[in-house]
Structures are given as C-alpha cells and as structure tokens.
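subagent[fold] <- orchestrator: predict structure for attached chain, return tokens only, no commentary.
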Amino acid sequence: MDSNAQSVEWAVVGSDIGPLLLAATGEGLVTVVFHATTGRRETALRQLKGRLGAEPVEDPAGRLAEPIRQLAAFFDGTLREFELPLDWSLSGGFNRQVLRELAAGVPYGTVVGYGDLADRVGSPGAAQAVGAAMGSNPLPIVVPCHRVVESGGGLGGFGGGLETKRQLLALEGVLPAPLF
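subagent[fold] -> orchestrator:
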C-alpha cells in the first residue's frame, strides 16, 4: 500500500443523534464514533492512530465528503442505503463476517434478531457472539447494528446508548417517533 492509502482523515459532523466522528483511509470509511465530544474524540483518534499506525488528519472535504453527504441524507430521510467504500481493517474474523451479513442482508426499515443473524452466518446458537460483534462494530449507522434486536421484542444493547438506538429505529419507521 502506498503511504497515501495508509493516511487517515477525520471530521466531526453534527447529526440528529449528536456529534459523530468519521474517519476514512484510502480504502474507505473506517469508523463512525457516537457522541464525539472533545474527550471521546481525543480517545477515538488515539485509538485510531494505535490501530492503523497513522496520525489522523482533520479533513472534512477529502475522503469524508461523500460519507458526510450520505449521512446527512440518511438523517433527512432521503437515503435508505449507503453506497460507500468501507475499510474493514478494524474488524476481523467472526465479527467481520456477521457485520458484512448485517450490511448486506438487513435493509432499511427492518430488524433482525441476534439468533437469526447467527443462523444466517452458519453459527446457530451464537446469539451472544453476534451481540459481541454488534458491540465491536466500527461503522455503526452505515453498518446498521441498530437493526439487531432481541427475539422477544426487546431492543437489546447498543454502543451508542438505547435512546440513540430508539431514535435510529424511529427514523427508519420501525418504532414510533418520540412524542417530545
């Protein structure tokens, strides 16, 4: 890989669910971080540098211009399917397999149970491992872990917090919008 492909560009953008930190490499979007306030942003950038071996550079106009545009369209209700190159280097093995199936097989406005997703990747009975994969998702929203719910109808967990998960599912019409 050339040195340009190894570089990491980042930006923080506002959204209906709070500030999001986005980062991209030459391969594509590599991470989306919820609640990107100053402390969380600094921690995420340090972790990115450690994992990818490159000093992240702030640049919302370069590689992130299209992800920023598509996220804005998602939040305003005009985009239902992201079409972005993704860099999967922050995920591997079973987790990557589950996340790829989620991205390809659970469309906007639908949900899937943890156990059903385990079945889809050929690992029946691995619902807890699917939950761990969702918790490790470096690309939330774009790889829609908010669409994975408990079989009994509960929301399950969510790295961005349950209120954020409710808001995303309401945006997609799966849950009623909050009254306030």
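orchestrator: received. Logging for downstream: The chain is about 40% helix and 10% strand. The chain has a mean pLDDT of 93.
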